[in-house]
## 1
Amino acid sequence: MILPPDALAQANESVLHPTEREIPAMKISRTNIVVGVISFLLGAVVTVIAAWIPLSRFFATSSANVGAADIVYSLTTLNALKSGKITNAMELLEVQLDGGIIVLGSKLEELPAHLHHKNQIKQMKAAWDYRAKYPRKSDDPDMDATVAAYLDAFAAKE
């Protein structure tokens, strides 16, 4: 079937520029708004609940891993002390101190100053005092520089 040219032009015109009569009017009522808001809130609640379980498992696993690492570190240090390897035990504690300084220093660096807890700064000052009294050079000059930078940056804030 061949359409007359006018019919084809009218069909194209109605597709490109539909009239109001061809578009059903959307009624926005109070009921539609309430249903929309409730749907949004329910979606947000479901999202939070769905994310909560994996996140809580992640944090529980992370905490468990930290606890396990602490046990390994403590046992290694205690075994070194009990077997008379004082130098090994002291080195383990020195490495642990450096690690704590780096972790705390990096977190303090990320946070705005008004969120720094005074006990955290106090511990950095105590570590700075210890390092001033007992200087240490590790096998890693970059780590030594990082530790010194964090101590200098945050110990002075006490």
Note: The chain has two domains: 27-83, 85-158.
## 2
Amino acid sequence: MPHSSINILFVSRRNTIRSVLAQACLAHSGKGRFAAYSCGVPVEVHKQPNPATLEALRKAGLPVPTPLGVGWDQFTKHSSPRMDWVITLDEDVKRLTPSWPGQPETALWSYPDVLSRAFGKTAIDGEVLQVLHSLRNRIEILVSLPLHAGERAALREDVRDIGYAA
């Protein structure tokens, strides 16, 4: 049975910064056309977002998405929502991802791991805000695409190409 909204899963390592920001942006910009989800590597997922993520969402006026602290094993079960797209936000994690049920389209929008690059609260806060700004731009492009219509291969390339946008 087809579903009316487009289900998109964002994947990062810990599900504390990048994937949470992407989920929040899509939930806001998708205006009901999309159902946004996020997850991380099951053994590395944290139960709560990084404090810098919460602060960035507050500054942007975006609600904190739920549920949080989810491993990708929650999306490989038969009872899980069927994803239309899985967008991985970490190149290293892309190599580890499982086979997704229903064979969703996949894309890589690679962002560096903020916590491995930035040290100190000010640096981390700044990096997280940059990631949020970039994700908002990419997601605005994503929501403008005719994902329910159009030629599948062309749409796949368009979504993948968004990963090269600022």
Note: The longest helix spans residues 121-144.
